[in-house]
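So, does this match?
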Amino acid sequence: MKKKGPPTPPKTYRRLDKPTPIPQVNKFYDSGISEDVDRSSERCIDRSKSVRELREEFTKINFIPMRISSPKLSVSPQQSVSSTKSVSPKLSVWPISSIPPKPPILPKPTNTKKQSEYCYNDCYDDSNTYDAVSFSDSEEGFYDSVSNDESDHPRNAVEELLQNERKYVERLQYYINKLVPLMYQHNISNGLRFQKNNVFTNIESIQAMHHNTFLPALESCGNDAENIALTFMQLIENGTFYCYVLYALNKHKSEKICDANKDFFKHAYSDLTQFLLEPVQRLPRYRLLLKEMGKEASRNGTNIAALDKAERLLSRLIELADAAVNLSDILPFLEVQNQPGRSLELNYHKDLPLTLILRPELFKNAAQRDPINLLNQGKLEDYLELKIYDYNERRRYQSKIFLFENLLLYTEIIKAKLEYRGHYLDSEVNCTIEETLKLEVCSKCCTQKIEVHFDTFSKLKFLEDHIEKMRRRFRRSQAEELINEKQRHSQETLDSKGNTRQKVAEVQDTEWYIRELQRSLVLNQQQFCDVLQVNYEYYLGGDVPESFRGIYDLHRERILPDLTSSIALDNMCDLFVSYLAENVLAPVYNDYLREFKMATENIKPDYNRMAPGVTYRVEDFTCLCIKQLKVYCDFFNDVCARMAEDSAANNRVDLDLFRKVASTQKELDQFVHNTEQNFELFNMGRQAVDCGLVRYSEAVQLQVDNKTTEECRLFINELAAVCVSVQRNNRNEEHYRQIIFIDKFRGRSGPMGMRNSKKTESRLNFVIDNFKYKIIFSNQQVTERFRQQYITNFVLVK
């Protein structure tokens, strides 16, 4: 007999509402670098409802999945007898018609944990402020929503760069309009009065640069990643992005002022900190996007040389900005901290113009105690971390040396902090080579002297060249000041025909300036001949090779007398044009290039018996005559620049003479460039000399594997094609490292080592000893030009 139980509820066949379809989320491009924040989750909440209504709504939403039958539903013991198909969940106490529809699943935010960790680990360094990029949900500032339209999402790194750049410009303008007016309120505190530039630095000029220059340049590039990379390179090299270094110099001062006045900014403090952080994070974001564009270009098989170069330049700019942040924290001396009323660290004038005043009050030399405005010392060009021996301190310490255009400033590194130790102005700095990796820097009066120890020769050469540039700029500025003084004096004595007299005075000043340049060139030529003779006697003794003797006779017996007798500028142009046209320079220098390496292979300098004027390395001894050619180029460059300034100022200029000077400068520059290229190549060894003189060259990329490339230069010499790996220094100058391969020309009797690539038209393959070298050119036109040059020179060899 069946046991009675509760009656089985009748089956109801009720028409269920069709559930809301789940939208399909498109897999948009996302590099993990984007600043966009998905705020659509915030829009699904109606903030006008009460807390109780919101709680009930979320309770219903949480119970909706249980409305659908599932094998994991729990069943009571009384219901276990019946089939699970007839079991109705307890949620059925609500009428089915009153159950709200299931909400759509929202798109996944772009800033996922994996992406953030990738960017964090890739760029974060707690010792470098400008190397770190942090991501937060509030970075978009005043942007309240993000469109879900597919057209608004970037599909590659180029589109992401353009979108972020537009938002960055708008965001800066919004914050400038919102926060900068706070500095002009009538109730501003005394600690913020006249501190507008110290708080915001040059952020307005940064916004103007991006709005007027950088963003239009990016938009004109379209989707071409290579043109974008060239835009970065151009703006970095011409100093447009130097505004970020100026911002970094003032970063810590701005933070201290803002932290000390939190009460005044209490209603906008979070926006202020975010606003001041925007320029700090901008440069690392550009670097990440350039890396992403490089990855996409490598996957597409396109050339990434420009992207790699732009990334290197940007990385160097970020390092310089980090150094500027360190510079803003230097202390004059520890004793200053204990003296009341003394200004600590970098001092600022309470005035509208931004200044960066260093006050070395306790410096031992009284002449070095005058305040220095670092912003008047030219641009911060570089920095070095080296060990120095300080003769004033009588000890050796680890130092960071900051190199401005007109100032050399050195500090001591003490527990990750910097302390000021001394400086040299361009009017007093001097340097001498002590040993192979030791440079002595001193003032002209020798009251201040340090000894810098280097770990590599390239750093020593870089510092020596920088000091020489400082001295050259100072001499040129002195000459310009003298000319300006004469102009001011002539202006004071103007009569009724003052304008005419002023023009005549300016022309006379230009003529005087050119005569001074000519006089300096003659003195330099005389000094060069003396130095060359001393070095010949030291290195070669009485056995001077014929090619070396030809160089000496050319400069001593011909060029020096010609420069001494050629007074007029027109005669100077004719002189050097005749040198190039009549093959006066070329044969002598070509013979020298072919023989100098073998003639000096066994020579080693003896540092114990060096005389004044003797070079300390054989490479510098052989390069003396090459450097003298640069002196001639500098002369014509300075004259041409002076005449161009007069022409721009509507002063009377002899246009025929101007064209003649410019033509001479161009021809001489080309000859010097070819000579330098041959010298650098032949200096690598005898195997390069055996290939003959260089006739043509191109900057190329050597594809090591399918992903990585190496920067190289491919030469076409008289007897072979030579590929050399190159390395660029901080000034973007090429230095040859090693020879990759040499393809000997065999003429019509032998097969060529070069093959056309079947995969891409901008690549050529060289098969040397059964090994294939893949050479990538910048574009198809350059590839075709090189191929024609190669075939012509290959066939002409007998």
Remarks:
- The domain at 334-473 is CATH 2.30.29.30 (PH-domain like).
- The mean pLDDT is 75.
- Residues 498-539 form the longest helix (42 residues).
